[in-house]
Amino acid sequence: MSALPSVAAENFAQCVPIIASSELTEGMSHLFTFVKDDERYEAFVIRFGGQIRAYLNLCPHAGEPIATKNQSAFNSDKRYLLCREHFALFDPDTGKCVSGPCPIADLHKLSIVQLDGTICLMMG
Ligand code: FES
Predict the structure, then answer these.
(1) What confidence tens digit (pLDDT) does each residue in 5-30 have?
(2) Cβ(85) – ligand 1 distance below 6 Å
(3) Number of folded domains in the chain?
(4) What is the CATH number of the domain that holds 104?
(5) Domain presence at residue 2
(6) Cα-Cα-Cα-Cα dihedral of 54, 23, 67, 33, to 10°?
(7) CB of 61 closer than 6 A to ligand 1?
């Protein structure tokens, strides 16, 4: 089980539900969108090493998406997150760039919590 923090039900208004925790299996990524300050963003959530992480779906090299509708955010052996445009690799746990054309920029990590078995994005 993940070590995601849980939030009280009264804080649910600040959370955007993403996916049921039970549906996000190990080595899986899941795309989602959210709106903040009238801007629409695409992001993805992953389970890696039992932990759940979420990142903006934006490679810091040239802005290409990491995950697509048909393509997981993970590389083939599921040890890294992969940008298929120029093959940057990122640590799934931290979003840190470990290889490829992105040495000074990492993935943007998002704040997530778990509420009643649902993974939620914390807004604000
Ligand atoms: S846009 Fe991702 S490595 Fe270039």
Answers:
(1) 666 555 556 889 999 999 999 999 99
(2) yes
(3) 1
(4) 2.102.10.10
(5) no
(6) -60
(7) yes
